[in-house]
Design goal:
Blueprint (H helix, E strand, L loop, with lengths): L3 H36 L4 H10 L2 E3 L9 E3 L9 E2 L6 E2 L7 H8 L20
Antiparallel strand pairs: 1-2, 3-4
Amino acid sequence: MTTYGELQERALKLLEQAEQQRLTEVKVALEEISRTMHELDIGLDELLVFLCSAGFRMKSAKKDAASLRVSGAVEAQAKYVNTATGETWSGRGRPPRWIVESEAKGVYRQAYQVHGGHPGESIR
């Protein structure tokens, strides 16, 4: 008869194997994404804009773009995106600090539009 401890040990080994398999499959998927991005000349900024407008959000402000996950909340679609941080703004309500600070430095908010402009275009 199998003991509880033996079952726990087997379960732990299976979880470790499952995580290793997941990491292997993630690597394959990311390689395919990278290959397709290269073939179609898609930049990271374009990918980030797409992910933000499709409802993906950072798990934590301290984590990088590889930590994106789908948000269950229904939000207004992003009109502006800060490609450096992944922060978005719908254009509604008070402008976020990064828009205000950019405008103070002479950068049009249109430079951050999801479908137009290049982040950092100067007013001058």
